[in-house]
Design brief:
It contains eleven helices and no strands. It has 325 residues and is an all-alpha fold.
Length: 325
């Protein structure tokens, strides 16, 4: 790569000196490297840069993929400590380094081609792989929760460390947010190196990468919400049953809220603030939808009692969720 870049720089500097220092018109300059050779050198330079970038990125993401799937490391107690699945900052650093290197070639088209590859193919593909691994691993959560009590008490009852999943998902969500926040600076760096005619195309490629990070972050919150909803599903099933109409019927809502609260408290110290807000809103919306769906399915409504019990549930829900505003 260094040799190819040196040849391109030599040709560029030679042309500049002949034009600026000697005043020779561009049409009369005999180039050290003709257009066909220059195109080949640029293509080779781009190809080598892509191959090297693939190698660097693979060394970053593959160990992270494996660690998330195996969860062989216990999540740290402090939010500022690294777990080992954080890759976004390194990915953005690699991107910025490549942008600087390609700028030295002084050819806008190969920079744009590289950004297209990096954002729309390499990064997008890795983010999709993250989502696949995320969904595959989170599908193990119901099995983990359904383990028999005697199995749960066994130290070897969780060989896949499924119990670590909520914290792993939290770290991944935070990392996706950092990746999304790091892209605008890289885009601005590119814009400073090219003509404005290329701005729209660059923005298009960076938008693909941005949506990839945002989709991953949203998927993390969806999976966390599904974990909560699966845990409170038994209580949801009892809503509007005969037991719900009893004096202890508020226990179903109360128990659900205790489970939700346990997640909110535990994740409050780890999720980035904007992600925590979204998680809270998603939990609230999902719970209310489930509640209303159960209400809609009632075949026979006891008008004399149901209003009182609906008011009872409303008071519990209102007091709980408004306490987090």
């Amino acid at each position: 790569n260094a040799l190819l870049l040196s040849l391109l720089e030599l040709d560029y500097e030679n042309n500049n000196k002949l034009r600026k220092q000697l005043g020779i018109p561009k049409s009369r300059i005999i180039q050290l490297i003709n257009n066909e050779e220059r195109t080949k050198l640029l293509d080779d330079y781009l190809s080598l840069t892509i191959n090297k970038t693939d190698e660097w990125v693979s060394k970053v993401v593959n160990p992270a993929f494996e660690l998330f799937a195996k969860r062989s490391q216990e999540p740290p107690d402090a939010s500022f400590e690294r777990l080992g699945i954080e890759t976004s900052q390194t990915i953005i650093t690699i991107l910025n380094g490549d942008i600087n290197a390609l700028a030295d070639a002084m050819d806008t088209p190969i920079l744009v081609k590289f950004i297209k590859y990096y954002c729309s193919e390499l990064l997008f593909s890795n983010l999709n792989r993250w989502r696949q691994i995320l969904n595959d691993e989170c599908s193990k959560w119901p099995i983990f929760l359904n383990a028999q009590p005697e199995e749960s008490e066994n130290a070897n009852s969780d060989p896949d460390n499924v119990g670590f999943l909520p914290r792993y998902v939290t770290v991944l969500a935070n990392d996706a947010l950092k990746g999304a926040n790091g892209l605008p600076e890289a885009l601005q760096k590119c814009k400073e190196m090219v003509h404005e005619n290329f701005f729209a195309e660059l923005e298009q490629y960076f938008e693909v990468a941005l949506q990839g990070y945002l989709n991953l972050g949203r998927q993390c919150l969806v999976n966390l919400t599904e974990m909560v909803m699966f845990e409170i599903a038994p209580d949801i099933d009892y809503l509007f049953s005969k037991s719900w109409y009893s004096g202890d019927g508020d226990g179903f809502i109360d128990n659900s809220l205790k489970i939700i609260e346990s997640y909110l408290i535990n994740l409050n110290d780890y999720l980035e603030f904007e992600l925590y807000e979204s998680f809270f809103e998603t939990i609230l919306d999902t719970f209310l939808i489930k509640y209303l769906e159960k209400l809609e399915k009632i075949e026979k409504i006891n008008d004399d009692k149901i209003c009182n019990y609906l008011q009872r549930d409303y008071n519990l829900l209102y007091q709980f969720f408004t306490g987090y505003e």
